[in-house]
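Need residues for this backbone.
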């Protein structure tokens, strides 16, 4: 008879306590130090110049990682984080830096990505800023069990949920939604089973748009509960879906969520992309306008989303907007048809990874805007590299790494990086928005 083997719980990785001098700060915000045996270790929340006691864990893979236990000598750049859960929460990694050290750290992370790809760092402009309480979209995790609700963000480097009663990044409208859900979810999602899920929330011009990602299909009673919830929290729309890949179904559609780009009101489909803050979006738009200022003629806007960049540009020249998500392209098309830019703005649904716009078509435009997701635009960039007539490219990116990789390829093909405007749209995180002008 086959003997059943009992699965052993994983053995904890060995760890030890050290007193260390921090010599640098990494791109993820960790203090970097050398262990007595010369190995490099990363200490969460420690700053350059500090002497700290740290519990260092020796993982099977990757460098040893340290937990800050005590600060023996603090850096003059250290400040008390304004948020009480900042040390644990995965949403912010740099609240313990004073303003100057924070901006230096963010700027250096961009330079490091540029240097690694062989790009010129002298074209980097000083960072433009957005403020706290400006985030207009967020993703929260929740877990409800044994009578307790956890609602917030994932803990840093883990799946555990860190309960966030307030978040200083959020627009007040989103903070209100967080408060309301905290009050209401425990009575709505009752029952013996532990419930987990995610909440995707966007502050639209007509009120909050909330998508509940559940681990089960709601029954009739719960659906009725959702419509009462939408009423009490004055949500524009409340939708639900079963898991991350389920189809979103509206449970309460009280007002159409909309966003205004220039004079154009656009309906927001559930799950659509919007820039993280309207302050960030305004700075991106301003930098794009500057990059296009001395050009005229038709513009191609690739990865156009709902048209935050296409709409203002179309106020005085023809724009063709290409977007992969059909519902977004359709929404932009129908808003454009009813607006003053109807004759100048055309749209197309197209997967630019599978079917990039080819070189000969790109050469018909006087400028191209490129604003891909975090992974970058590898395939589209290969086509842009071969252009002969196109002379202006505006690359907007939320990832310095994929931007540097793609731009290095363009520079190799003869494009020149004229300037890059960094924008601190993702406060206290390692992410920086970039808008770059390239010429050839
Ligand atoms: C960073 S957003 C930029 C949107 C827009 N420019 C804005 O400022 O709001 C990237 C956009 O690319 C779209 N996208 C992602 N993958 C795509 C693909 N393979 N082909 C075309 N569009 C894609 C997303 O749906 C999203 O709207």
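Answer:
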């Amino acid at each position: 008879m086959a003997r059943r083997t009992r699965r052993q719980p994983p053995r904890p990785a060995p760890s030890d306590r050290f007193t260390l001098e921090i010599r640098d700060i990494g791109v993820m915000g960790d203090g970097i130090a050398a262990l007595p045996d010369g190995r490099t270790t990363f200490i969460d929340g420690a700053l350059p110049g500090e002497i700290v006691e740290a519990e260092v864990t020796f993982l099977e893979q990757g460098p040893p990682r340290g937990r800050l236990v005590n600060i023996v000598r603090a850096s003059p750049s250290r400040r008390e984080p304004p948020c009480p859960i900042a040390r644990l929460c995965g949403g912010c990694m740099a609240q313990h830096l004073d303003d100057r050290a924070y901006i230096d750290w963010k700027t250096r992370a961009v330079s490091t990505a540029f240097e690694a790809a062989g790009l010129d760092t002298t074209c980097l402009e000083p960072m433009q800023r957005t403020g706290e309480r400006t985030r207009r979209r967020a993703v929260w995790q929740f877990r409800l069990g044994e009578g307790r609700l956890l609602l917030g963000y994932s803990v840093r480097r883990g799946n555990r949920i860190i309960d966030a009663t307030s978040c200083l990044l959020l627009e007040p409208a989103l903070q209100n939604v967080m408060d309301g859900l905290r009050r209401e979810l425990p009575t709505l999602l009752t029952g013996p089973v532990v419930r987990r899920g995610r909440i995707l929330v966007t502050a639209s011009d007509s009120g909050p748009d909330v998508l509940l990602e559940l681990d089960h299909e709601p029954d009739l009673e719960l659906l009725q509960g959702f419509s009462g919830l939408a009423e009490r929290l004055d949500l524009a729309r409340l939708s639900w879906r079963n898991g991350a890949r389920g189809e979103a179904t509206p449970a309460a559609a009280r007002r159409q969520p909309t966003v205004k780009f220039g004079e154009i009101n656009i309906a927001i489909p559930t799950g659509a992309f919007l820039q993280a803050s309207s302050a960030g979006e305004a700075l991106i738009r301003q930098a794009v306008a500057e990059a296009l200022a001395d050009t005229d003629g038709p513009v191609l806007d690739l990865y156009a989303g709902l048209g935050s960049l296409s709409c203002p540009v179309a106020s005085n020249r023809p724009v063709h907007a290409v977007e992969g998500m059909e519902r977004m392209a359709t929404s932009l098309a129908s808003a454009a048809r009813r607006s003053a830019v109807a004759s100048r703005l055309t749209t197309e649904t197209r997967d630019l990874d599978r079917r990039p716009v080819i070189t000969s078509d790109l050469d018909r435009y006087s400028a191209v805007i490129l604003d891909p997701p975090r992974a970058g635009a590898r395939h589209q960039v290969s086509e842009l590299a071969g252009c002969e007539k196109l002379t202006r490219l505006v690359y907007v990116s939320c990832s310095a790494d994929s931007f540097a990789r793609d731009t290095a390829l363009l520079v190799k093909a003869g494009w020149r990086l004229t300037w890059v405007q960094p924008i601190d749209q993702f406060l206290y995180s390692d992410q920086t928005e970039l808008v770059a002008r390239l010429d050839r």
